[in-house]
Design a protein that fits this description.
The protein is α/β, with parallel strands linked by helices. 41% of the residues lie in helices and 15% in strands. Strand 4 (156-164), helix 6 and strand 5 (187-191) form a beta-alpha-beta unit. It starts with 9 loop residues before the first helix and ends with a helix. Bound molecules: zinc ion.
Length: 768
């Protein structure tokens, strides 16, 4: 779903990096020197030798062959090739010695029976709504794909004036209101970008619109960004981004089984009770189809930052452009096929390391998701070979290939909900990937696993630069944070990177299959993938995300496919074999301190911004600058900001800081002593460490969305994908809900106290 994007300032970068990248001796050679978290000195050497044998099994050409086969036919949910891919993946796991099976779930998956769009006034135009074949792309002429659509949008047949609302985000509607244009009874056209696509029709509906069109403006991922396909990798005029619009930030998964698995015989909610379904019809269109609609608009000229790269004057409307749109769908259920494969652990079989990547695409899915899938298959084959050569992991390893991710994380969510109890008992980590391509490592996740990510990245060589993946990412962070216009977060990351130690990882919002594990079950999770040098964004969720496109513009030579398998493989093998789980709670505590400091800044800014606005309103400044021929109304007066009580959070974070330091110190002392302790004691410590992340959840969940139980990480209600850390407090502050902020400061503080108390229990256990 959400691609791993690390694409900033490339031109400047390549220049800067050659500064940093004096080729160093191959990373692997001198890696033996350094210790590994969770291992004794001797154990670390054995582990690295095992990883060398693992690497020797990885083959770029094999991964290329798998990708060609898996992406040879359309493989969306319900397509014959989607099922065939699941069966092929199952057969590979079995061949490699894994205990593997397919688990099937019956999910609501509407498909289009009839879609149509036409301009009916002031002139007429019939939208193509189809992606034609392109030269040099072998699969682009194949049949069997679904027409472009936004799954879980409503059926409808509407005709109305058109209004252009930029990205269709909350601030865009404020801007519209100030120009006296509303969308009641209108059809809204917005461009992709700046947030989760499902928010666009949802906000349009909330503002009274009767239909929504979402188009890809060439400024964002078409000819403004680079040569279009097939000459370059960017979005061609007829390319369309399909995608789900379900309200995933309320709950993902099958809309008709909220919080429980869509297993045979369960009750499915009637459609009118499924709250993640949308109420108005939505259609995704290409910029070739959008241009005649936009150029037929009149009304005010759009603000400068609303203007894309189409050769038209961007107007807002409403009218005189009037459009007629139709969407009629087949609202039946379809089977999704999850492949689940296990290697049982020898000493702690009830501690599970779970790894996953989805296999369903929107059409051929070469980049999204099969690029990640083939790297994961490479890992599975190598691990199978290690087992055949006599190695056995201490803990169990579970590899999963999900179906139904594109419509709404269906396969992973239904599986996680069905096995919730056992997963909360046994799973210690969930490691996800999705898209993968040439470039830099992107990593987001639970911060107790930040060091694990760094240590793996430090031991893998970047195929282009000959330095470690970690060092190349360090260079990126330092360059990005150096610019005069660098964002505060980038500056902070650059400062940390410059110190030479671990690099900070991001926090997880939503957009791929980790959501149910982390945000519903509270299992420590990480999402990784390479990217940033590829030209894939333009074919995202279109017919042109094909093997030929990926082979040219994604990862020619499949070198980053091998690099992903090396990083992910190390994270899995180390967590499966360490004496004590490789977790560092001081990193979580330090990150939390940063989040709490941000919340204080947010509260202070609310005070400052409100006072500033009041002064401008009292001085009638808005009236004075408004052009009488194009009047823009002053903004609505903001309410006064009372004192916001974040003290409970400060106290809890401070106490946790001390406990985390004590834990990490006790852990390090045990490591220095060779982790000598009875197996029963280390097994008990690992059992409790493996469940620590669950202590960050609250049974009541977040306001208005109880499915989201994690009190530190969640996708934003108004971002859909983007993370909101300490969401209960941060979103209340952003919504100027001061009481909500106080309430969730107390709720989150209580959760953190429970986490700290549990950590102290484990510290005592480690010391004895
Ligand atoms: Zn994906």
């Amino acid at each position: 779903m959400k691609p791993m994007t690390v694409r900033p300032l490339l031109a400047a970068l390549s220049m800067a990096l050659c500064m940093f990248a004096a080729p160093a001796p191959s990373v692997a050679a001198d890696a033996t020197a350094t210790s590994l978290l969770g291992f004794t000195g001797e154990g670390a050497a054995t582990q690295r030798a095992l990883e060398q044998r693992f690497d020797a099994q990885l083959s770029a050409s094999e991964m290329r062959d798998w990708l060609q086969r898996l992406s040879a036919e359309p493989n969306q949910v319900g397509a014959p090739h989607d099922k065939a891919n699941a069966e092929f993946i199952l057969s590979l796991f079995k061949q490699w010695g894994w205990d593997a099976r397919i688990e099937t779930f019956d999910v609501l998956y509407p498909t289009p029976k009839h879609v149509a769009l036409e301009l009916v006034a002031p002139t007429t135009f019939k939208a193509m709504l189809h992606e034609p074949p392109v030269e040099g792309d072998a699969t682009s002429a194949l049949s069997g794909a679904l027409p472009p659509y936004n799954v879980y949008g409503a059926d409808g047949d509407v005709t109305a004036d058109l209004v252009y609302v930029n990205y269709g985000m909350p601030d865009d509607y404020k801007e519209l209101a100030r120009r006296g244009v509303d969308v009641k009874g209108k059809i809204v056209i917005v461009r992709y970008g700046a947030g989760w696509r499902g928010l666009k029709p949802e906000l349009a509906h909330e503002h009274g619109a009767v239909g929504c069109l979402i188009y890809s403006d060439p400024r964002d991922d078409g000819y403004f960004a680079g040569d279009t396909y097939p000459k370059g990798g960017w979005r061609p005029p007829e390319g369309v981004q399909r995608g789900s619009v379900a309200k995933m930030m309320v709950y993902p998964g099958d809309p008709t089984t909220p919080g429980y698995g869509s297993t045979p015989g369960v009750k499915h909610l009637p459609l009118d009770k499924a709250t993640t379904l949308l109420k108005i019809p939505v259609l995704p269109i290409s910029y070739a189809d959008a241009q005649p609609l936009l150029s037929a608009l009149g009304g005010p000229v759009a603000p400068e930052n609303w203007r894309g790269a189409l050769p038209v004057t961007y107007h807002i409307g409403g009218g005189p452009a009037k459009v007629h749109m139709q969407v009629e769908s087949d609202w039946t259920r379809k089977p999704v096929y999850d492949v689940i494969a296990t290697i049982k652990g020898a000493q702690e079989p009830d501690r599970w390391i779970v790894r996953g990547n989805h296999h369903d695409g929107w059409v051929f899915g070469a980049w999204d998701p099969l690029s990640g899938t083939v790297a994961m298959l490479g890992e599975a084959k190598a691990i199978g070979a290690l087992v055949k050569s006599g190695w056995k992991p201490k803990r169990s390893i579970v590899y999963t290939s999900w179906d139904g991710e594109e419509p709404g994380l269906l396969g992973s969510t239904e599986w996680a909900e069905t096995h919730a109890k056992e997963l909360q008992q046994k799973a210690v980590m969930y490691l996800n990937s999705d898209t993968n391509a040439r470039g830099f490592l992107g990593a987001e996740g639970s911060h107790s696993l930040q060091h694990l990510v760094n240590a793996a990245a430090a031991d893998v060589t970047d195929p282009e630069k000959g330095v470690s993946v970690q060092e190349r990412l360090r260079a990126l962070m330092r360059v990005e944070g150096a610019g005069a216009h660098a964002k505060p977060e980038a500056k902070r990351d650059a400062e940390i990177a410059a110190k030479g130690g671990d690099l900070p990882i991001g926090a997880l919002g939503s957009g791929s299959d980790y959501s149910a594990f982390l945000e519903h079950l509270g299992i420590a999770s990480v999402n990784i993938g390479f990217g940033g040098e590829d030209d894939d964004d333009g074919i995202y969720h279109s017919r042109y995300d094909s093997f030929d496109h990926f082979d040219r513009f994604g990862d020619p030579g499949f070198k980053y496919e091998v690099a992903l398998a090396q990083v992910a493989g190390r994270m899995v093998l180390r967590t499966a074999d360490a004496d004590l789980l490789p977790m560092r709670f001081g990193d979580f505590s330090a990150t939390l301190d940063h989040y709490v400091a941000q919340l204080h800044k947010l509260a202070d800014a609310a005070h400052k911004d409100t006072n500033a606005q009041h002064q401008l309103l009292d001085a009638k400044a808005y009236e004075l600058v408004s052009d009488p021929t194009r009047p823009v109304a002053p903004p609505e007066r903001l309410s006064d900001v009372p004192k916001i009580d974040l003290a409970p959070l400060d106290v809890a974070a401070k106490a946790l800081h001390a406990s985390a330091q004590a834990f990490d110190a006790a852990y390090a002392e045990r490591a220095a002593g060779g982790f000598r302790m009875p197996a029963r004691q280390s097994a008990r410590i690992n059992e409790l460490m493996g469940r620590m992340e669950q202590m960050l959840t609250d049974a009541d969940g977040l306001p208005g969305r109880e499915w989201f139980k994690h009190m530190i990480y969640a996708p934003g209600l108004l971002t859909g994908y983007g993370v909101k850390t300490v969401p209960g407090v941060r979103e209340a502050l952003e919504a100027r809900d001061w009481q909500g902020a106080d309430k969730y400061a107390a709720v989150t503080a209580k959760v953190l106290d429970g986490y700290r108390a549990e950590l102290d229990v484990i510290t005592t256990l480690i010391k004895h």
